[in-house]
Amino acid sequence: MSSLNLDDFTDLIERPDGGVRRDAEARRERLLVPPGSLGRLDDLGEWLAAARGTVPVRPVERPRAVLFAGDHGIARLGVSARPAGDAVRLVRSVLSGGSPVSVLARRLGVPVRVVDMALDCEPDTLPEEVVRHRVRRGSGRIDIEDALTAEEATAAFRAGVAIADEEADSGTDLVVLGDVSVGGTTAAAVLVAALCGTDASVVTGRGGVAVDDLTWMRKCAAVRDALRRARPVLGDQLELLAAAGGADLTAMTGFLLQAAVRKMPVILDGVVAAACALVAQRVAFRAPDWWLAGHDSGEPGQAKALDRMGLEPLLSQGVTVGEGAGALLALPLVQAAAALAAELPERDPELLPEEDPEKEQETGAV
After folding, report:
1. Does the annotation count 128 as an active-site position?
2. Closest CA to 140 of 125, 160, 122, 118
3. pTM of the predicted model as reported, rounded to 2 decimal places
4. N or C: which end of the chain has fewer CB within 10 A?
5. Candidates 46, 122, 323, 354; catalytic one
6. Does 63-331 carry CATH code 3.40.50.10210?
């Protein structure tokens, strides 16, 4: 399909350092706080130590939220509570500081980067740094046509790779990955259903803004029709993204793979990020070792994709707004795990372990 060789990612992506993880586990056993008493925070701290290659783990100091934006032609069928082409309004809300992710990012001190890949608007209506990677104006209606041409898919994928490199080179040490789209959850459902071999109704949810039953049925029909076009190209992930994804989803997939190459951890947001991660897993099976699932959005497609990748959401707060907000809520948990793993004191090796009272009584009886 293109000069891109996605198989290269299989060789380029390594797992987080297993030796460092074992050292982190050994250090955890030496802490004053009893093993297991911190629950999943122990696993998070050890994972982050392996990802960052140091024990004690270095704190997450330069996180960044990266949001890929686009409009999807499938939205014209009325599969979303938002009107087709409305993603640009959502982007402007993020940029102006009035969206949920903007509020959370301000509170947490996290910069937000928005990348327009296929918004349905004139590019000169948005800042240059937002639109400079744009591939096209809106993605195709995937029930009857490809979302992208082969050339556009290649360009979008390469843009995602380039953005991951830009973030890694600038010192970003963890990315919260989300999307700003209208129709994106429909495309995501198609990708998940195709890759997991399930029917449309199994993976089709009600989107970031819950839709009524009639709209959900239209969405299921759109996913079913798009699946017919997606299944014949399952063997080529870039063709699959061109047929049934879109410019934003294709760029997110490239971003995820290159982030794993650059050993930059990523917190995934909702079903769109999960679908892209599932495609990326098909490209390079070690890539999911660099990702965390930030939260459970309630979308069945997200649950199916995360289960297939063996990722368990960190939070379940019923957040469906998208735009990276749910994943951003998980960031303080990851930072707390790193702080606890690095800063809790170890036991003094010269001190005797505490006596077991029951054992002492048994010894006295003898």
Report:
1. no
2. 118
3. 0.92
4. C
5. 323
6. yes
